[in-house]
Amino acid sequence: MLKEINEIVVKHGLKLKKKEQAGDETEKGLAVKIDSYAVESNVHFPTDYNLLWDAARKTLSLTKQLLAEHPGIKGWRKIDQLLATVKSRFDLVRRSSQRGGVNRDSKMKKATRKYLVTTRQLSKKLHLLEGEISREEYKEVKWIEWANYRQMLDKHIDLLNRRVMKKEKIPHKEKVFSIFETYTEWISKGKANRAVELGLKAAIATEKSGFILMHSVMEKQQDVDIAVPMTKELNEKYDIGSISFDKGFWSKENYKELEATKIFLTMPKKGKLSKAEYEREHDTEFIALRKAHSAVESNINMLEHHGVNRCPDHGIASFKRYVALGVLGYNLHRLGNLLLEQDRVKKRQAA
User: Fold this and answer.
1) Which of 35-39, 69-73, 117-121, 137-141 has the lowest mean pLDDT?
2) 31-73, pLDDT tens digit by residue?
3) Out of 177-181, 187-191, 212-216, which region has the weakest mean confidence (pLDDT)?
4) Rounded to whole angstroms, how far apart are CA atoms 100 and 319?
5) Which residues contact 29 (CB under 8 A, 6 or more apart)?
6) Rounded to an integer, what distance in angstroms lies between the CA atom of residue 285 and that of residue 264?
7) According to the model, what pLDDT value does residue 190 have?
8) Where in the chain is the domain with CATH 3.30.420.10?
9) Is the pLDDT of residue 95 over 50?
10) For residue 100, what pLDDT is reported?
11) Are 213 and 10 in contact (CB under 8 A)?
12) Are 133 and 73 in contact, with CB atoms under 8 Å apart?
């Protein structure tokens, strides 16, 4: 719904701008730029030991609610003490990890061993508790949430044990970057000031007057995956004259498929250029559009200043809604500025 509203706002803005977009833009269609940037989730920096602590405290919090509804269950009288013990073991591991020194590894291993003993005891009690209460006796949503955090507890006990005690290198695909916002991805875009961002990438398509024609939140996707579908959808909705990308969107298949659309394509190739590719990328129009492509960075910067740099909401549906609202707010701001400028021109002409 928000995307449809945004499309109405953009088309109205382009209609108002039509008189100012005389010349090549009107004849050849819109000059579109597509780029992506990272929208951060509201999460802390992940390590296996602090994610294990997150799982433990959330599981125990939900367990207290469960026990309040089933007062006859035995063996949980010291649940608060158990939570405090897990917390103290976690603090010990955290301090050992952050400190340097000659004996850092041995201290870290010793602290981790104690932490794992306590969390394994907790895991064992939770598995026994699950056997005592049937799913039907507990509220469905709370049961799913409780079971999810218990599984996260077991997972991070295993990861911490393998990494610290067994000195294994954990494959990236096995890692979780937040037990709360499980959609969160590890994004490294090579920025000098920010080596890593935690969230999801969002791709935006802008045109000369600055309106964002379309956006796409990328789950388990890279730039190269969205170039073709995004271009095709844009081509169905707008009169596109040219479209530009950076090298991250390049692939041989993407270029071949997009070239067939008859839109003037500015997609720099990765790697060494052939003679024909060198001539194509040194064409006057290609160079002009490639230089103009950098303007999308200012659109991204403005979008971030509209709040779409970090999502405070929970869940992937809320994340996507938040980005869509931010894009709509950005375009309404653009449209408002355009209307105000037109009013100022009319007043000057009347004067």
Assistant:
1) 137-141
2) 999 999 999 999 999 999 999 999 999 999 999 988 888 777 8
3) 187-191
4) 38
5) 238, 239, 240, 241, 242
6) 9
7) 63
8) 2-43+183-350
9) yes
10) 75
11) yes
12) yes
Identify the three-state secondary structure at position 184.
coil
195: Cβ contacts below 8 Å, ≥ 6 apart: 188
Query: For the stretch 229-250, what's the b/e string if a residue is b when 16 or more beta carbons lie within 10 angstroms of its beta carbon?
Result: ebbeebbeebebbbbbbbeebb
Q: Which CATH architecture fits 48-174?
A: Up-down Bundle (1.20)
Closest CA to 116 of 156, 151, 146, 152: 156
Q: Where in the chain is the domain with CATH 1.20.120?
A: 48-174
pTM: 0.86
CA distance readout (Å), 137 to 77, 145, 148 = 21, 15, 17
| DSSP symbol at 308 | T
Class of domain 2-43+183-350: alpha beta
Structure confidence by residue, pLDDT tens digits, 301-323: 999 988 999 999 999 999 999 99
